[in-house]
Amino acid sequence: MSRILLVSPSEELEQRVHQATGGAFLPLRAAEVPADAGQLFAQLGGAPAPDVVVLDLRPDPAQAVALAGRLAQQCPQISVVLVGDQGPETALAALRAGVRDLLPAEAGPAEIKLALELAARSAAARASVAAAGSASSHTAAGRVISVVSPKGGVGKTTVAANLAVGLAQRFPSTVVLVDLDIQFGDVSSALDLEPEYFLVDTVRGAASTDSMVLKTVLTRHSTGLYVICAPDSPADADTITEGDVARLLQMLAAEFRYVVVDTAPGLSEHTLAALDQTTDLLLLTSMDVPGVRGMRKELDTLRKLELLPSSHHVVLNFADPRSLLTIADVEFTIGTGVDVQLPRSKAVPDSVDQGVPLLQSGRRDPMTKQLSALVDRFVGADGAAVPPGPEATGSYPTKKPKVPPRRAASRWRRTRTAVA
Q1: What angle do CA 124, 141, 1 make, to 5 degrees?
Q2: How confident is the model over 225-277, as pLDDT tens digits?
Q3: Which of 75, 289, 320, 410 is deepest in the core (most CB within 10 A)?
Q4: What single-letter DSSP state applies at residue 384?
Q5: Among the listed residues 165, 160, 196, the one whose alpha carbon sits nearest the alpha carbon of residue 315
């Protein structure tokens, strides 16, 4: 049975639709036409998305036609029927917006019934085609890439945003970035976004169970990336549970090729819930003693919790050959190799302030080159996933670090003692 939604303030029209459907419809008494699909579905009280939406033109014809157009773009499987007297201009605009049928304001139950039956058949046909296409193109769930770090201030959001943008440039409309720093996440700032919906909206109501509704509350970035931004208020974080996080990531993985998760520093309950769904882990640290010590502890903890996937990548940010520590020091301390080194770059602060990731701007810089190399670790030349190399197994590096010669030897001993 098709799900039919009527959006109208008219009790009289509601009675006619009731007669046409035998009461098998959901009435939504709306004095104003919702602005978009997200606002419409938010008023359904958790009910699943409809197959057919009947919009009353009379309250605001222009707004009703605009909503019909947004439904056609955001939810192409839904058929829209407009009811109300239309002039030639309104009728033409409605057809261009993708409306399935137009009914006069005085249409009787029989006429309404026929229009709804045809609209339902059209919706069912499109849903069948979409399901067949999805089955042929998605043989497995998408990859969930979680970006974690033991401490803040290491550029985690910058790396996560660039990784997501880089993937989206290669696979448009198949990548989503989730800001899971639920209290103070700033992915929206990193991408210069002004979202209308936030993380809370994706785990409440119909969006929490219906992937079609979920897609309507995602924020679209200019690169083709979809984004779920952290709550606008830190107080909203208390309403999001670990179960919400797990369910959200499962739904996203079923719909997107890549799900990139920017987590909060440390191992909070929400981060652990994300790690349960993670297929690829990106561990980020800075090139300093506190960061390296924290990374060693985090790796040890994840191994004990059995939350360290075989496909994991250690990324060293702010790499600087003039640093007191060396790459060898870092690898010896954390017990595994460093897969990618991101150098210090004057381009990064400007990029962050402008809200334009380096991989989006294409600015020529050593940092941009290394970020591209990081993206390459998740896709091959033909677009296939890159299997984890020996450096991703978590084994102790077999090649011992070189001991610096002569006068640097005392500095080497002091550094090794400090890090250990």
Answers
A1: 20
A2: 999 999 888 888 888 999 999 999 999 999 999 999 999 999 999 999 999 99
A3: 75
A4: P
A5: 160
- Please name the residue that has the structure tokens 């297929």: 279
Contact indicator for 20, 13 with CB cutoff of 8 Å = no
Counted residue by residue, the chain has a size of 420
> How far is residue 144 from each of residues 70, 155, 188, 260, 282, measured CA to CA in Å?
29, 20, 20, 6, 11
Query: Mean pLDDT of all residues in the chain?
Result: 85
Domains of the chain: 4-131 (3.40.50.2300), 143-381 (3.40.50.300)
Give helix 61-74 / helix 88-96 axis angle, nearest 10°: 10
Instruction: Name the residue with higher pLDDT: 419 or 13.
Output: 13
Rg of the Cα trace of the chain? Answer: 26
Residues 6+ positions from 352 with CB-CB distance below 8 Å? 158, 190
Query: pLDDT band at 94, cuts 50/70/90?
Result: confident
Token pair recorded at residue 9: 């303030």
What does the block give as tokens for 398?
């077999």
Structure-token pair, residue 150: 């033991």
Among candidates 197, 229, 193, which has minimal Cα distance to 213? 197
Task: State the average pLDDT over residues 370-382.
Answer: 83
Burial degree of 268 (CB within 10 A; 0-12, 13-18, 19+): middle
The tokens describing 23, both together, are 């009461």
Helix pair 269-276, 242-255: axis angle to 10 deg: 30
Angle 347-354/366-376 helices, nearest 10 degrees?
70
Beta-bridge mates of residue 83: 56, 103
Q: What are phi and psi of 220, to 5 degrees?
A: -95, 130
E strand or H helix at 212: helix 211-216
CB atoms within 10 A of CB 81: 22
* Higher pLDDT pick, 402 / 184: 184
